[in-house]
Amino acid sequence: MSFWFWNGLKRGIQSTRYPRLPETTPGVTPGRPMATTFASAEEAAHAASGCPVGAITAAGREALIDLRTCIHCQRCRFGGSPPVEWVNDFEWTQLARTQTSFEPLNRSFQRSLHIMVVDAGDCGACLREIKQLNNPLYNIHRLGLFFTPTPRTADVLLVVGPVTENMRGPLEKTYHAMPQPKKVVAVGTCAITGGVFGRTFASAGGAGMVLPVDLEVPGDPPPPLAILHGLLVLTGRKSLQLSQTAAAS
Amino acid sequence: MTIAPPSHSPLDLEGLITLLNERFGTGISLLKEAPGLVVRVLDQAVLRAVSRFLFWEADGFFGGLIVEERFGEWTLQYLFLLRHIGWVDVVVRSPFAQKAIPSIVAEVHAADWYEREAEDLFGIDFEGHPRLGDFILHDETWQEHIAPMRKEFDAAVRNFEREPNQKWRPTLVVEDPGSFAMPVGPVYEGGLGEPIHFLLETVGEDVIREVPRLFYKYRAVEKIAEGKAVSDVLLLAERFSATSAFAHSLAFCQAIENAVQVEIPARASRLRVVLAELERLRHHAGAIEGICQSTALSVSEAHAAIIEEQLLRASAAFTGHRYLFGLNTLGGLQRDVEESGCRDLLRAIDDADSQLRILEDRLHYTSSFLDRLEDVGAISLENARDLDLVGPVGRASGVARDLRKACPYASYSEYSFDVPSEKEGDGYARLRVLFAEARESARLIQQAIASLEPGEISIPLDAPVSTVAFGWAEAPIGAALHGLRLDSQGRIERYRILTPSFRNWLGFHLAAEDFAFQDFPIILATFGLSATECDR
What we know:
By secondary structure, chain A is an alpha/beta fold. In chain A, 27% of the residues lie in helices and 16% in strands. In chain A, strand 9, helix 5 (165-176) and strand 10 (183-187) form a beta-alpha-beta unit. By secondary structure, chain B is an alpha+beta fold. Chain B folds into 2 domains: 1-170, Beta Polymerase, domain 2 (2-Layer Sandwich); 221-525, Orthogonal Bundle (Cytochrome-c3 Hydrogenase, chain B). The chains are: A alpha/beta, B alpha+beta. The interface between A and B is large, with 76 and 79 residues.
């Protein structure tokens, strides 16, 4: 006989202190490439041409990063010389390209937000990272965020994957089954731009092609804390503007 | 179909050639070619007999079917892996005008889905296959008779002017009074389950028939790879299934490295073992978490979840990516690791290993947990061999095949490790195999890190031209095979991914049928399969 209850209590609280305190444990985020100033315009152009998905654009001596298309292949970090700089943060949430302004959900959702997830063809990484939010190390229940098994009680829809043709119908049905007000968050590069799968006969090339997306959490995959940040932005507990400038810098 | 007694003297290559010539004479022609033997079937009437011989009498592992469209005819390549011999490719050529190709399903049941896939995506008809149509391209979404894998089909065109069959309904077979079909999916568990539609036919308590409907995540990876450069397809190879990203990118890189016959630096080869085993350990911790969750034993679920997240963090600290993306490159690894990184990783591995042992011990003495797993979802050795199940699922039923031992790659032959297997084939056996494999992975990582010597991490390698390439790796779920054909500019002409999940989903119904509804999530979790790896 195992004393599960006692064994569980004995381990104590292991959850992260984020968002109250910053989280800096190694490995909670893979980091992201950031805008880098090179010694010459040629070097910046070289960095831009080395990116397999065109996420880097050269502007003079500077190399600018478009996180929406970056697939974290790390080629600009280790494959290219000189390397593009990477930074270990995770507050990456951006306003969707199609939106001009963002209004967070009202106060009543701040400590009671119900989340529905639709896997529309992701590789399994984004879905696993969303699942990790239920992990004791993240424990999103403490923040009043809950996964719900039915769209009827959901306030926010997280879409992962490039939206395959076979999943387009189920995704639309799920969205239409949700009550108002509802928000849609595209999680991961595939759900934002289609990623490596692009726009083909079998993939729509992102959730924005099918649904009105409000927020985007870039990353391939975005770590759990990046997704958590997106949910906090949605409820107005973290601000978008700060992270927007951070991501664009 | 019964299992033929294995021949007492193990076949070698010469013995096999003599036997094949004796049996099939002018119906086939043989060609020795690295890494094995090519059997050209000249007379299609002997195809079934050749497959039966290789699968049952020579006790071969059926690797899968590769279809190519070349020079106005179909080339079908059936892969078999024979002990002591290596890969045997049975090649059939058939002009487009030919109406149907003989199906080998009656002889090799494991070939079932491969032929259905070829029928759906290429439009090839197989004579004698019991069930074709409505497989990858769902009939309620897609028109009949589009064959996206044909060369003339343009993948970039999104054709929305179609008339799918909205009235499509699944075929039900249970006809007892009061019988009904319980649909599950494709969006279930709040979307946290991968999209699969299960149709459970029942009369109330027991699941009498289970039909999984997969391929909701079909992204046509094999199609969109065509015409791309090798380095771009490497990105696809590691991003179509994240739970085994490293194993798939490894199989892909090894395919190219095999084709140009280069030896990669020892440090890279050993580090690949470290990373592949790190991925296996993390995957198994996640699979164990899933099993604990399915039985609603929350504390054990949390315990396993913490182990998984710690391994994800260790992976990111060690390599820069939580799911080991962007590491493999043609000719080695993209980045080197530091001495201190190795020490940190070893500490994390030791910790995960000891925590998993504690968890296993606690689960082993929790009778309420064992009641849910023991004798549930059992697959007999005979059935497992019949469908040639791979990975932990196959090994739990006694099919102890492992590509790391059967045809070693990277530097696996340098290290000592066991391939754990069980006999019962039930849910508990699958859980024990997962725990045992996780222990072996930890042992392998320790050995491989100890054997690391300073040196080069990669060698420059240009993609070869006008050639075929074939590579393999034992992914966490089982055998992963990648086949490539490169054109004269070194671009991909045909890319074929044979995944372990595709194979094991075929056997899932054997476990799910004849059990009660409440056992279904548990059986699903003990299989630990990935839909995205199957769907591609």
